[in-house]
């Protein structure tokens, strides 16, 4: 009888292994990825700004940002171009930092108004991400920013998920 139980358990374990769902990474066509990135360009509009911020990154783009805006850089009138599911931003105008602190994250907004961009349920904040010296969404040589120093972003791309 014990041998039977062992066989049944082995059989059930085998069923669980073979019946376990396999989760594949969702993939999208290049056309869908291009559309998603083009939608970002449209949403940013012709008056977009990249804001470099200190403090803890908000949980999502609808959460108030309690950090300090260290620098605010205008984005080109057309934020960027899209190809192969990749948004390549155009020029960011270099600007002097307006505060001193450690850059931890960034916001891309449709306006230069820091109050509107950092507010809870902001309708002007389109994108947010991390800032660091490597492995972040935007990397700077140093995250230590001093008021008055020139802040430059020479290139930035976003690749649509699902490629």
Summarize the structure in words.
By secondary structure, the protein is an alpha+beta fold. It has one domain. The chain contains 3 helices and 12 strands; from the N terminus they run ααβββββββαβββββ. A 5-stranded mixed β-sheet has the order 2-1-7-8-9. The longest helix is centred in the first third of the chain and has 18 residues. The termini are far apart.
Describe the secondary structure blueprint for this structure.
Elements: H1 2-19, H2 30-44, E1 49-53, E2 69-74, E3 80-83, E4 86-89, E5 95-96, E6 101-102, E7 105-109, H3 114-118, E8 125-132, E9 138-139, E10 144-145, E11 150-151, E12 157-159
Number of domains: 1
Number of helices: 3
Number of strands: 12
Strand percentage lies at 25-35%
- Helical coverage, percent range: 10-25%
Task: Provide the structure class.
Answer: alpha+beta
- Determine the mean pLDDT: 87
Low-confidence stretches: 1-20
Quick recap:
This protein has 163 residues and is α+β, with helices and mostly antiparallel strands. It has helices at residues 2-19, 30-44, 114-118; strands at residues 49-53, 69-74, 80-83, 86-89, 95-96, 101-102, 105-109, 125-132, 138-139, 144-145, 150-151, 157-159.
């Amino acid at each position: 009888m014990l041998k039977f139980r062992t066989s049944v358990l082995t059989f059930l374990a085998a069923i669980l292994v073979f019946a376990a769902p396999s989760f594949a990474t969702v993939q999208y066509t290049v056309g869908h990825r291009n559309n998603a990135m083009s939608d970002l360009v449209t949403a940013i509009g012709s008056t977009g700004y990249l804001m470099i911020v200190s403090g803890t990154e908000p949980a999502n783009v609808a959460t108030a940002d309690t950090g300090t805006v260290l620098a605010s850089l205008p984005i080109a009138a057309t934020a960027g171009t899209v190809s192969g599911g990749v948004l390549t931003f155009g020029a960011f105008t270099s600007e002097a930092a307006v505060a001193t602190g450690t850059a931890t994250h960034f916001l891309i907004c449709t306006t230069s108004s820091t109050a509107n961009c950092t507010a809870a349920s902001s309708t002007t904040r389109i994108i947010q991400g991390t800032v660091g010296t490597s492995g972040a969404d935007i990397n700077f040589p140093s995250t230590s920013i001093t008021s008055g120093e020139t802040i430059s972003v020479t290139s930035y791309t976003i690749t649509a998920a699902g490629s």
